[in-house]
Design goal:
homodimer; about 280 residues; alpha/beta; Rossmann fold; 6-phosphogluconate dehydrogenase C-terminal fold; 8-stranded mixed beta sheet; 10 helices
Amino acid sequence: MKIGIIGLGLMGGSLGKTLKKIGGHEVFGYDNQETVMLKADMLGAINAPLDETTAKDIDMLIVSLYPSSFLSSIERFLPLLKDGAVITDFCGIKRKTMAEMKELSKKYPNLIFVGGHPMAGREFSGIDRSVSGLFEKASMILTNVNADIFTLEKIKAFYLTLGFSEVVITTPEYHDRAIAFTSQLCHIVSNAFIKNEIASEHFGYSAGSYKDLTRVARLNPKMWSELMIENGDNLSKELDEFIENLQKYSVALKNGDRVELEKLLSEGNERKLLIDTKNKK
Amino acid sequence: MKIGIIGLGLMGGSLGKTLKKIGGHEVFGYDNQETVMLKADMLGAINAPLDETTAKDIDMLIVSLYPSSFLSSIERFLPLLKDGAVITDFCGIKRKTMAEMKELSKKYPNLIFVGGHPMAGREFSGIDRSVSGLFEKASMILTNVNADIFTLEKIKAFYLTLGFSEVVITTPEYHDRAIAFTSQLCHIVSNAFIKNEIASEHFGYSAGSYKDLTRVARLNPKMWSELMIENGDNLSKELDEFIENLQKYSVALKNGDRVELEKLLSEGNERKLLIDTKNKK
């Protein structure tokens, strides 16, 4: 296929490298920073620039930018695309871009719009950190706008060739609600955890639990703040629920109430067991 | 060496198996549950039972029990031990057992008391889950009572042979303050996180950040509640500081204040970078 990528950061760059590695595709890329374009070329993430000429033959256009840049970045290319071309965004929240895609699908009924969220990432950002194996064993989430079931199956199959272990189709609303918990809240927790005063001391040791918990404290603040504010309704609900639960442990500790603390820990323990069992099925 | 182990659970069992695997030691074990004694024998975690006869030749006695059982479990063996025998507990908090060891060292001045906390573990407990590689690349923390520097060096060297990557010597007070954050708080966070209502839904996907964050939600509630209540002063301080920091994110989200949220995320991001750099040195 001929694939266009707009935005050649960690995600877009990794996508280009992955496509080039699995072969059988031609990759055309665009980034508004000239140095990134040069790097994408040097690192072999693209075959050629995506421009007014190359856009005409594109089968699939993937936009890997912040939600706020999605619309403005594709407007120039949409009138050039051939009938049946598929447009997908890679934004980490889906309600905003799906609403925009819905509007676009009315204006360009011959184009196919399907939202996407590759649940892969690294603690780093930028094309320098992009890698061809980024999607290995990750989940790809699709939110459909106007694709028929056969096209959707083709798109699913395409993403599986990139290394994703599963492709899940859901609604933008459910996606944003779930992601507020499974991804965004994790990042806030990790980012806030590292702020405890004692964290800056060098212990000469750290447990595995600490390493796991603080891994995603490192993040791209510009991108995440946009995604989180855009999903603020869901995220603040999840965050407040979490704080409320934490406060119960705090009360038990202050009361020296071992029975209550053991009960709280048991509840979490059993819940984790149950959820893991359910997810294995 | 001849090594006695009291308490043959996950830790004690893993210690026995590790000692047997590296060789050169004779392992004598004691557990107050007969089925555990039988399993320890069958699984090859011990050479023979630790009893009134075998205790006499022990060079090192390691107690791998809850803090509340430490004192009562060793009293019967202490009068039997030979001069210079080393007694170490494996409790996850150190102030309580160190105070007890200090008293014992007055009563038994010819015995050597050194507290220990192997910073290794699994989400499971019991001898069935014990493994010989449990201490691989983990940190061992020692809190000294009455060992001279040469003996302490010998003990350090011994633990390095078990697979530990480092042995750190510190005070019980500092250990408990640090561990409240690096280990206990992580477990509470993970255990509380999984309680959000939405966690019980099966998404068909989950991000790496979610997997990392919920790993230690599964824990031994009986053991952890004892360790946490015993360290309640330090732990509740750390927990409250964390909750306070989380609340700042909640406020920014509710106000839709992207500038503030980006600032909060940047602070966490930079702090994580700084700490990682410091810890690498």
